[in-house]
Specification:
Blueprint (H helix, E strand, L loop, with lengths): L1 E6 L3 H12 L4 E7 L2 H11 L3 E5 L7 H11 L4 E6 L3 H10 L4 E4 L3 H13 L12
Parallel strand pairs: 1-2, 1-3, 3-4, 4-5
Helix pairs in contact: 2-3
Length: about 130
């Protein structure tokens, strides 16, 4: 079972992502956060397999939160999501050493595919099986 933390400052987006993920066997939403500070706290507490991280949020942005989480919860994979300029955000994603980027405009069609490609990048499904 892949445990996922959803981080976005918009409740409707979190609900939509939760609905999409809950429709897939093998994926489980273990928590939600609405800003970068909560994201860091939740990541440390929950130790999710994957974090879906928005960039533009109050208190602490997703890039800064990603840097802290990568340092303190290194086992969690992080997928950055944004509606901002993809070129700039991809560069920020690389600088923060996140594991990937997905434009919010592509989420409805590509989120599950992107999650699976990240989880199975090492060629082993282990306990992160997604059906």
């Amino acid at each position: 079972m892949c445990r996922i933390l959803i981080v976005d400052d918009h409740q409707v987006i979190r609900q939509n992502i939760r609905g999409l993920l809950n429709s897939r066997e093998g994926l489980s939403v273990c928590g939600e956060a609405e800003d970068g500070v909560q994201a860091v706290e939740q990541a440390k507490q929950l130790r999710p397999n994957l974090i879906l991280m928005d960039v533009s949020m109050p208190k602490m942005n997703g890039i800064d939160a990603t840097k802290i989480i990568r340092r303190d919860v290194s086992e969690s994979l992080i997928l950055i999501m944004s509606q901002n300029d993809p070129w700039i955000v991809r560069r920020q994603t690389e600088d923060a050493t996140a594991h990937g980027f997905l434009a919010k405009s592509a989420m409805a069609h590509h989120l599950i595919e992107r999650i699976e490609s990240m989880l199975f990048a090492d060629g082993q499904k282990k306990d992160r099986k997604v059906s």
